[in-house]
Protein: HD/PDEase domain-containing protein
Amino acid sequence: MKDYDPSHDWFHVDRVRRLALNICGSLIENGVSVDKELVEFAALFHDIGDAKFYKEGQPTGREIITDFLIRRGYAKTETVAKIVENVSFRKELAGVKNVWADNCIELHVVQDADKLDAIGAFGILRCAAYSGYKNRPLYDPAEKPKKNMTHEEYQTQTKANTGTAIGHFHEKLLRLQDMMKTAPGQVMAMRRHSIMVNFVEEIEDEYKMW
Structure:
């Protein structure tokens, strides 16, 4: 991951790991059975082979993960790989029916942790960092963001590298609160969501002043 941008660096990975363990702890305290070790491994690996950074000819995320863990004798290697393959927003947006994904609490924990780091104060910083990495405008008053984008629309925009940083809030980030899957994640998302709403409103107000 050394060639990833600052929004997908080790600090992001560690924040997701810590958020996932926090959610795990809350679930376990409330009697929910969760494999804490499995969650931590999946959180640590969750961005390996990220499609946004994948280049033709490179090993896939699954190949890297399975090679690393099998050589170390980890018994749940396949489950870690499956979690990592199903974490992303794109996978959820595609809406493909997946019974395993619908019922894997460890996946839900890592998904919620990853979403939490995409919203709130760190989410704002990460959105700006990734937009700079992709050389996308921060704000364009002439460009109206699309709300409730379909998977196809999201994929097309990603490939064309169009859109703006503020547009991304409407197209993805402000949708994440309603996609949280664990009770602790839902509670944690509320405050972070409100921070983003206030931020987007402030951007609009500051632009209108001119």
Q: What stands out?
A: The chain has one domain: 6-208. The first helix runs from residue 10 to 29. Residues 154 and 171 are 8 Å apart (CA to CA). Residues 6-208 form a domain with the Hypothetical protein af1432 fold (CATH 1.10.3210.50).
